[in-house]
Amino acid sequence: MRIEGDVGAGAYYTRSIVRGKTERASVLPYGYFDYGRMFARIDTMGVKTIKLGYGYLEVAGRVSLDGFKADAANLRGLTDRSNSIPLGIGTFQVTPVGAFFVNAFHDVNKSQGSLFEAIYAAEVATPRATLYPQIGAEYLSKKYTGYYYGISAHEATASQYSLYQPSGAFNPFLAALIDTTITEEVHLNFYWRHKWMASSIQGSPIVGRKGMDTTVVALTYRYK
Q1: What ranges in the chain are assigned the alpha helix state H?
Q2: Which residue among 6, 19, 127, 132 has the highest number of C-beta atoms inside a 10 angstrom radius?
Q3: Residue 94 in contact with residue 122, Cβ under 8 Å?
Q4: Domains of the chain, start order
Q5: In this structure, is the dihedral angle defined by the CA atoms of residues 29, 187, 86 and 205, taken in order, positive or negative?
């Protein structure tokens, strides 16, 4: 039992799509490593169970910062949205043609919605850096989108907005992870993702952008 992979600290930045909300940046622990059958992959962590194909069936959870406080002037009359707590199952398959991530989560917090995602990642190696381009998509259930981007009847009465009940949302995205070697043990990792939001989310009166950008910059120590 030993850690294999990267452990360090990172600056996490997400550009909010909600009108009136400022950009969010946080300094948090960063990990992309295995410890026996336990694992951490930036925002997702869990335990590998039975062998499945080129990987394992995994029980996983995710650290999510998708909630927001309705403290902006244009959000007056709305209730705060709590961060989701997604728990579920998934798998990470490292195949001869690239890596595949598949996850199915249920938010055990306020929304009680579901999230499904599938991601493909390739690898391009150079002497000083390795690039991992990614393409994927997620599906958010009606309960999930309704909690975060909908306007309830009570909120419509108390705010300037009309009742809005979005349907489920299919959101494609592109991402890339760049692993740069400073020394053999010390690495600088840069992660970027752009997600195109579905029309059911864009149509919300509290949403002001068509896409969501996430950036992580982390300084790590690599355990081998």
Answers
A1: 142-149, 153-158, 199-202
A2: 6
A3: no
A4: 3-223 (2.40.230.20)
A5: positive
Q: Name the burial class of residue 65, with classes exposed (0-12), middle (13-18) and buried (19+) by CB atoms within 10 angstroms of its CB.
A: middle
* Secondary structure of residue 91 in the 3-state scheme: strand
User: What does the DSSP 8-state code read for residue 45?
Assistant: E
Q: What does pTM read for this prediction?
A: 0.92
Rg of the chain over Cα atoms, rounded to whole angstroms, equals 19
Spell out the long-range contacts of 148-156 with Cβ–Cβ below 8 A and sequence spacing 24 or more: 148/66, 148/67, 148/81, 148/111, 149/200, 149/201, 149/204, 149/206, 149/207, 150/204, 151/78, 151/204, 151/205, 151/206, 155/77, 155/78, 155/79
For residue range 104-132, what is the model confidence (pLDDT) as tens digits?
999 999 999 999 999 999 999 998 999 99
Residue 191 φ/ψ, nearest 5 degrees = -125, 135
Q: Using CA atoms of 142, 148, 153, 157 in order, give the dihedral in degrees to the nearest 10.
A: -160
Q: Are strands 3-14 and 86-95 parallel, antiparallel or unpaired?
A: unpaired
- Residue 162 CA to its chain's centroid (Å): 29
Cβ-count burial 75-104 (b if 16+ within 10 Å, e if not): beebeebbebbbebebbbeeeeeebbbbbb
Q: What is the pLDDT of residues 6-42, one digit of tens each?
A: 999 999 999 899 998 877 788 999 999 999 999 999 9
